[in-house]
Amino acid sequence: MAAGTLYVVATPIGNLGDVTFRALEILRAVPLVAAEDTRVTRRLLDRYEITTRTTSYHAQSGPARERSLLEHLGAGEDLALVTDAGTPVVSDPGEGLVAAWAAQGGVVVPVPGASSVLAADRWCPAETPQRSRTPSTGGSPPTIAGARHRCSTASASSSASPGARARNACSRSIARCSTGA
């Protein structure tokens, strides 16, 4: 039997209406959804009348749960991995499952969603030397490398991990824009 596909499905941050059609198609088609919190995921599934079975998979899930999900995939069954809000593996559980399945030669398919970072960037009226909304620059956002550098530099004094510092700095920056601070 062929191995299943692991779909890493982005879910809406805040407004359930921001889910993509592709995400809904995947969530309907797979036989199982591994969710950070099944109660939160069930609200999304119920809104769109999706009856797919869910199982919990979160930071406190033991190795037995990961093995169970890998066995599910190995038996040829597809699996959707979701988090409460956003994209799994970015700052939520799933990295171990994705890495283990990929190491076994399994297929991992990202299913992106709406980008809250891009929406905040376009909505925020603040101008910075790195991104001016003047016609001469075309209002283009900074490069990913540039954004990473600014975010990690801004949070370098924190005792958290480098990834957490960058996420926290970017989140604070977006929060300042959304509140007008």
What would you say about this model in short?
The chain is α/β, with parallel strands linked by helices and 181 residues long. Helices cover 43% and strands 12% of the residues.
Task: Characterise the protein shown here.
By secondary structure, the protein is of the alpha/beta class. The protein has 2 domains: 5-111, Tetrapyrrole methylase, N-terminal domain (Cobalt-precorrin-4 Transmethylase, domain 1), CATH 3.40.1010.10; 116-179, no CATH class. Helix content is 43%, strand content 12%. The protein contains 7 helices and 5 strands. The protein has helices at 21-29, 38-47, 63-74, 95-103, 116-123, 144-154, 162-179, and strands at residues 5-9, 32-35, 53-56, 79-82, 107-111. Strand 2 (32-35), helix 2 (38-47) and strand 3 (53-56) form a beta-alpha-beta unit. The radius of gyration is 19 Å and the shape is globular.
How does the SSE layout of this entry go?
Blueprint: E1 5-9, H1 21-29, E2 32-35, H2 38-47, E3 53-56, H3 63-74, E4 79-82, H4 95-103, E5 107-111, H5 116-123, H6 144-154, H7 162-179
Parallel strand pairs: 1-4, 1-5, 2-3, 2-4
CATH superfamily assignment of the largest domain? Tetrapyrrole methylase, N-terminal domain
- The total number of structural domains is 2
Could you tell me the CATH topology label of the largest domain. Cobalt-precorrin-4 Transmethylase, domain 1
Spatial strand order of the main sheet: 3-2-4-1-5
CATH architecture identity of the largest domain: 3-Layer(aba) Sandwich
Query: Which stretches are low in confidence, meaning pLDDT under 50 for 5 or more residues running?
Result: 131-142, 154-158, 173-181
Number-wise, the strands total: 5
Mean pLDDT: 76
Q: What is the string of SSEs from the N terminus onward?
A: EHEHEHEHEHHH
